[in-house]
Specification:
Bound molecules: 6-O-phosphono-beta-D-fructofuranose
CATH class of the largest domain: Alpha Beta
Shape: elongated
Strand content: 15-25%
Strand order of the largest sheet: 3-2-1-4-5-10-11
Structural class: alpha/beta
Helix content: 40-55%
């Protein structure tokens, strides 16, 4: 593999996800392996604009594969949305003799990378890391597996108290636009109902389902609600509605929130992060640009940013069916 790159920058952007540190480690060590100097940019695109970056080496990433969060810090940069901000970022890269950029994050991160690359003819490769798993061109984003395991454990614990008190729990999980976390954890933790933005069950169906649960002798119930679900205005309004129409239910709400993004990455996420990190650097060396590395049919692949951003990740309808059958 002939390598024309001397120095590349890497950054994490958007919401943090477990496994971001494992992927930083992989990008840094693969760069060093190919005699490229890796430069870690602090706080996503904001760090590119302000010039906050540091040269790294194989030892700078020791002891981080098991750590949650991101040692590079992250941000959703407002300034990078303006041409002026992106120009400053380009100047930082040029002044530091950096000839390639690896961006780790979700679709907002790739949209920024795409615009930047086209504007300044600068090579950019993306790595999908978000707990939401809502990126087209990869079966798994880094962080999804860890977050779903964290959520599943939290629901298991809530189940203990729900069954002790014969209660109905509405558990809100993350996923502003996507229901992958809700669907997978709902099945894994045996939820009676799963409410996701991709499918509008409606309040009537929820009422019918809860009535059926009572009739079949269930003493407690769990409804997993994705943050972006539109069945109610929000999870608290859903609870009030059900209590009004089914007063026999003693209902509670648990919003899991940002704890879902924290913690040590699972084995799956560490391996995925290591594989995608290697592929990202080697893709740059091979002359690719404006593309995202991903996992498809257990093979590492490349997908153009345009497709990764615009493509829709479909919900697994088989899982919906499985959930319906399991919750009789
Ligand atoms: O994009 C990941 C995500 O965790 C979403 O599921 C959630 O809606 C959002 O980030 C929360 O973002 P913030 O950390 O800005 O509150």
């Amino acid at each position: 593999m002939k390598n024309q790159f001397k120095k590349i920058a890497l950054l994490t952007s958007g919401g943090d996800a477990p496994g971001m540190n494992a992927v930083i480690r992989s990008v840094v060590r693969t760069s060093v392996f190919h005699k490229i100097v890796p430069v870690g940019v602090s706080k996503g695109y904001d760090g590119l604009i302000s010039g906050k970056m540091v040269e790294m080496n194989a030892r700078s990433v020791k002891g981080i594969i098991n750590k949650g969060g991101t040692i590079l810090k992250t941000a959703r940069s407002k300034d990078f949305r303006s041409k002026e901000g992106r120009k400053k970022a380009f100047e930082t890269l040029k002044n530091n003799n950096i000839d390639g950029l690896i961006v780790i994050g979700g679709d907002g991160t790739f949209t920024g990378g795409l615009v930047f690359s086209k504007e300044f003819d600068f090579p950019v490769i993306g790595i999908p890391a978000t707990i939401d798993n809502d990126i087209f061109g990869t079966s798994h984003t880094i962080g999804f597996d860890s977050a779903t395991n964290t959520v599943m454990e939290a629901i298991d614990k809530i189940r203990d108290t729900a069954s002790s008190h014969n209660r109905l729990f509405f558990i809100e999980v993350m996923g502003r636009d996507a229901g992958h976390i809700a669907l997978n954890t709902g099945v894994a933790a045996g939820a009676e109902e799963i409410l996701i933005p991709e499918e509008d069950l409606g309040l009537d169906r929820l009422i019918q389902s809860l009535k059926r649960s009572q009739k079949t002798g269930k003493s407690s119930s769990i409804v997993v609600v994705a943050e972006g679900d539109k069945t109610g205005d929000n999870v608290f309004q859903l609870k009030d509605y059900i209590e009004k129409h089914l007063p026999e239910y003693d209902a509670r709400v648990a919003v899991l929130g940002h704890m879902q993004r924290g913690g040590s990455p699972t084995c799956f996420d560490r391996v995925l992060a290591s594989r995608l990190g290697v592929k990202s650097v080697e893709s740059l060396i091979e002359g690719n640009n404006c593309s995202m590395v991903g996992l498809q049919n257990n093979k590492v692949t490349l997908t153009p940013f345009q497709k990764a951003i615009k493509g829709i990740t479909k919900i697994n309808t088989e899982l919906l069916k499985v959930s319906d059958i399991m919750s009789i």
